[in-house]
């Protein structure tokens, strides 16, 4: 807690990060970052940045803190900014494990990072609370644009099965210095496919590896 003029003001971040800052002598730098770069909403440039991105990395955890990190991708602007405090991204058909969605059912906290490898080499962190919204529920929400509703009606593998809505609590830059420039090449995307080769096959040769749980009813991904 930072105290100003007798009033107690809660700083961004966790108690753990504040303890780490004190332990490793970075408190002054951290305060400067909070006061210059961190917001609890999306400003216009952040919203514009999200509208250009094709990649999103997400982190979730279950009720016990067991975590999972995953990737979401789509056409530029596939993540929708509903307003300065809310974003939504589509959940397309996947491998059926639903690790991220399952975590959100237990624990709504989510970490998101967009990284622009192609133009700006900067990233944007968003931390907040996630909720699962089925396509049929979109019609009852005043904050949903016709664009989202139309995308949810799309047929085929490119149709979202549902959406994840995120209430923004923290938004801040990931600095450019260690982000590489990458070259973007054309690739045909096979949306919703179950073709093993299009999905990467058994790239890590894991199919025949031993595992402690039963595999009698498992399917090849």
TrEMBL record:
InterPro entries in the record: Pyridox_Oxase_N, Split_barrel_FMN-bd
Keyword Metal-binding: no
Keyword terms: Plasmid
Protein name (Swiss-Prot/TrEMBL): Pyridoxamine 5'-phosphate oxidase N-terminal domain-containing protein
Coiled-coil region list: none
Top-rank lineage group of the source organism: Bacteria
Higher taxonomy: Bacteria, Bacillati, Cyanobacteriota, Cyanophyceae, Leptolyngbyales
Keyword flag Protein biosynthesis: no
Annotated ranges, domain Pyridoxamine 5'-phosphate oxidase N-terminal: 44-175
């Amino acid at each position: 807690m930072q105290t100003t003029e007798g009033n107690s003001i809660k700083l961004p971040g966790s108690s753990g990060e504040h303890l780490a800052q004190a332990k490793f002598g970075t408190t002054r730098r951290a305060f400067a970052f909070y006061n210059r770069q961190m917001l609890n909403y999306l400003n216009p440039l952040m919203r514009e940045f999200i509208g250009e991105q094709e990649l999103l990395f997400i982190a979730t955890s279950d009720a016990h803190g067991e975590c999972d990190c995953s990737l979401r991708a789509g056409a530029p602007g596939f993540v929708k900014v509903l307003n300065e405090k809310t974003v939504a991204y589509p959940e397309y058909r996947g491998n059926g494990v639903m690790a991220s969605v399952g975590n959100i059912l237990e624990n709504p906290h989510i970490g998101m990072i967009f990284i622009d490898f192609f133009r700006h080499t900067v990233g944007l962190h968003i931390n907040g609370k996630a909720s699962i919204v089925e396509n049929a529920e979109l019609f009852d929400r005043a904050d949903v644009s016709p664009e989202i509703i139309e995308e949810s009606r799309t047929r085929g593998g490119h149709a979202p099965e549902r959406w994840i809505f995120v209430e923004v609590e923290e938004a801040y830059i990931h600095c450019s210095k260690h982000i590489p420039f990458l070259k973007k090449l054309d690739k045909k995307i096979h949306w919703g496919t179950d073709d093993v080769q299009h999905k990467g096959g058994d790239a890590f040769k894991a199919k025949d590896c031993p595992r402690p749980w039963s595999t009698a009813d498992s399917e090849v991904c």
